[in-house]
Design a protein that fits this description.
Elements: E1 2-9, H1 10-22, E2 28-33, E3 40-48, H2 53-63, E4 66-71, E5 89-94, E6 96-102
Antiparallel strand pairs: 1-3, 1-6, 2-3, 4-5
Length: 109
């Protein structure tokens, strides 16, 4: 058995949740915040049998797409102003960061 932890952008969260339910996979959704953009994310915890890992990864890939987004930089307060860029920059956001962990034991009460 495996535990799949998938960190996805909030914009993709409902679509991924619906796709998992449609294929009869249960997941726990946790609100999380990314460290780089300080933007909202959703972390999915999905427990599956080993033979289902590839199907779940495909569902995640199909429903969590990366995209370009303009981000206004935060002014450095007391920091190094040499690296500060005063105009919005385009960064790639979205997609999914996925961790697959072995599960030693699973209990459901």
């Amino acid at each position: 058995m495996k535990l799949i932890m998938a960190v996805v952008q909030d914009k993709d969260s409902n679509r991924l949740s619906d796709a998992l339910v449609e294929k009869d996979y249960r997941a726990t959704k946790l609100a999380s915040t990314g460290g780089f953009l300080k933007a909202g994310n959703t972390t999915f915890l999905i427990g599956v049998e080993n033979e289902s890992v590839e199907e779940v990864l495909t569902i995640i890939k199909d429903n969590c797409k990366s995209r370009e987004q303009l981000v206004a930089p935060i002014s450095p307060m007391g920091g190094n102003a040499d690296s500060y860029v005063p105009y919005p920059v385009e960064v790639q956001v979205g997609g999914a960061t996925v961790f697959i962990l072995p599960v030693e034991q699973f209990e459901k009460f």
